């Protein structure tokens, strides 16, 4: 019988997603504005700092996955990495966004700070994401854990959005600015550390075969040899491209195209995140009854099709329609993405059984790299399509007439293709349960 998790341990572990997504969304929403408006870098210099940090972040994810697998047996778990990463990311987010108080205006220094912050996030996130594949064998329990994580992630994203809105209205050299950043950093450090403690209490049993992980490159190659992994990986890449594009242009769409106020835009975003969080419960229940794949395909298809159709047709100046149709109706279908994420831990079981190697964290390192790649592609597409040249004064122009088509069909098409791609996924529920039973029996024999 598959092991159960105590409720309090499950919540303690999942709370780490609040810390991770809180910091990542602060970076996503605030970093470019911070470097240009507060530090005073030009757009090109700020872009170079961001690109350099993202490149390092993408490279470090698979490396951290390999390190986590390599020392999993020696350290008897991954919680040590989670604890260290929580401290590093908490301290460095405080240093990053208060650097204009104490640091020279040096692109190299800010690039170094950003790379160090991304390193702290990687040390925390990759082992943290890997844990369900270590200690959970029931797909249903895994889905439930991912649902809790998804809920905490949305709460972290919501808090980060509020923090950004407040910071933009403060004097950047006022004590209030400094105090708010440091409070945010301290809260995220504490929550991340608590997650590491919860992780320690539910640490996995030893992997199937008590052996060292293969060399890093070999481990990555082995992960890509897992046939069940590829549809999930590329399906998630497409969804994240759509999500990244939507995040990048959301304020432009609501304020510049629909011409609704900042407060109304804020309400739409808050309702959107709240609906996503509540909807996860329904998607988990649906997966328990119908399996993960069918609800995932149906939900992502409706989300993609609805995005393509609804956003270009929204009337300018009307607030209620984007609130109800976008924030509530489409927001309810975004929650299905949690099922796509939970498939990854099932895929690692298949790879463990067929490849016989403890490469679990490498999968999650590749998964994180996938997310960063999607973010870079999303920013590239958005910047290219919305580039309207410059005005006579040399100021950049945003091609707002293109917003409804990029925010609608542009985003929705990636989600639609992802739903169709998941038709290639053949590792369905009956096979997942069979693999889980085999792994469980082998672990029990090894423990005798």
Descriptive key words:
Growth Hormone, Chain: A; globular; 2 domains; 2 strands; two-stranded antiparallel ribbon; 448 residues; mainly alpha
CATH superfamily of the largest domain: MFS general substrate transporter like domains
* Morphology: globular
Poorly predicted sequence stretches spanning 5 or more consecutive residues: 205-212
Question: How many distinct folded domains?
Answer: 2
What structural class do the secondary elements suggest?
mainly alpha
| CATH C-level of the largest domain | Mainly Alpha
Helix content: over 70%
What's the tally of helices?
Answer: 18
State the order of secondary-structure elements, H for helix, E for strand.
HHHHHHHHHHHHHHHHEEHH
The CATH topology of the largest domain is Growth Hormone, Chain: A
Quick one: how many beta strands? 2
Q: Major beta sheet, specifics?
A: 2 strands, antiparallel
The CATH architecture of the largest domain can be named as: Up-down Bundle
| Mean pLDDT value | 79
Description:
The protein has 2 domains: 205 residues, Growth Hormone, Chain: A; 240 residues, MFS general substrate transporter like domains (Growth Hormone, Chain: A, Up-down Bundle), CATH 1.20.1250. Helix content is 80%, strand content 2%. The two termini are 17 Å apart. Strands 1-2 form a two-stranded antiparallel sheet.
Layout of secondary structure:
Blueprint: H1 7-14, H2 16-39, H3 43-70, H4 72-75, H5 79-96, H6 99-102, H7 107-135, H8 139-168, H9 175-201, H10 216-224, H11 229-257, H12 262-290, H13 293-313, H14 320-334, H15 337-355, H16 360-386, E1 387-390, E2 396-398, H17 403-421, H18 429-447
Antiparallel strand pairs: 1-2
Helix pairs in contact: 1-8, 1-9, 2-3, 2-7, 2-8, 2-9, 3-7, 3-16, 5-7, 5-9, 7-16, 8-12, 8-15, 11-15, 11-16, 11-17, 12-13, 12-14, 13-14, 13-17, 15-18
């Amino acid at each position: 019988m598959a092991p159960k998790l105590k409720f309090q341990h499950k919540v303690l572990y999942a709370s780490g997603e609040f810390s991770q997504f809180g910091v990542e969304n602060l970076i996503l929403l605030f970093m470019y504005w911070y470097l240009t408006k507060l530090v005073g870098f030009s757009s090109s210099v700020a872009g170079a700092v961001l690109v350099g940090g993202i490149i390092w972040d993408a490279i470090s994810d698979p490396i951290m996955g390999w390190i986590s697998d390599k020392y999993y047996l020696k350290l008897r778990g991954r919680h040590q990495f989670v604890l260290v990463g929580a401290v590093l990311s908490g301290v460095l987010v405080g240093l990053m966004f208060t650097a204009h108080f104490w640091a020279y205006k040096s692109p190299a220094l800010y690039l170094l700070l950003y790379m160090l912050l991304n390193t702290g996030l990687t040390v925390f996130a990759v082992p943290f994401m890997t844990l369900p594949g270590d200690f959970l064998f029931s797909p249903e329990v895994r889905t439930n854990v991912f649902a809790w994580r998804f809920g905490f992630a949305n709460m972290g994203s919501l808090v980060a959005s509020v923090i950004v809105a407040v910071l933009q209205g403060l004097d950047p050299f006022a004590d209030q600015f400094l105090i708010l950043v440091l409070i945010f950093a301290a809260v995220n450090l504490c929550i991340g550390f608590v997650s590491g403690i919860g992780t320690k209490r539910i640490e996995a049993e030893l992997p199937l075969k008590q052996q060292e992980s293969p060399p890093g490159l070999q481990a990555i190659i082995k992960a890509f040899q897992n046939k069940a992994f590829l549809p999930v990986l590329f399906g998630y890449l497409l969804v994240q491209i759509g999500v990244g594009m939507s995040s990048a242009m959301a304020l432009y769409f609501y304020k510049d195209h629909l011409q609704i106020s900042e407060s109304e835009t804020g309400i739409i975003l808050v309702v959107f995140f709240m609906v996503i969080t509540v909807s996860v419960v329904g998607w988990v229940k649906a997966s328990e009854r119908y399996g993960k794949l069918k609800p995932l395909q149906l939900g992502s298809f409706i989300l993609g099709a609805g995005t393509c159709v609804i956003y270009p047709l929204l009337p300018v100046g009307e607030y209620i329609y984007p609130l109800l149709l976008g924030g509530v109706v489409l927001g309810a279908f975004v929650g299905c993405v949690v099922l796509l994420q939970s498939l990854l831990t099932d895929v690692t079981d298949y790879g463990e059984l067929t490849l016989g190697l403890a490469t679990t964290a490498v999968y999650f390192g590749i998964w994180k790299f996938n997310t960063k790649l999607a973010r870079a592609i999303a920013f590239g597409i958005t910047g290219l399509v919305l580039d309207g040249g410059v005005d006579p004064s040399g100021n950049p122009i945003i091609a707002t007439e293109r917003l409804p088509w990029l925010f609608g069909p542009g985003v929705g098409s990636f989600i639609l293709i992802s739903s169709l791609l998941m038709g290639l996924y053949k590792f369905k529920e009956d096979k997942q349960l069979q693999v889980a039973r085999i792994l469980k029996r082998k672990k029990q024999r090894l423990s005798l």
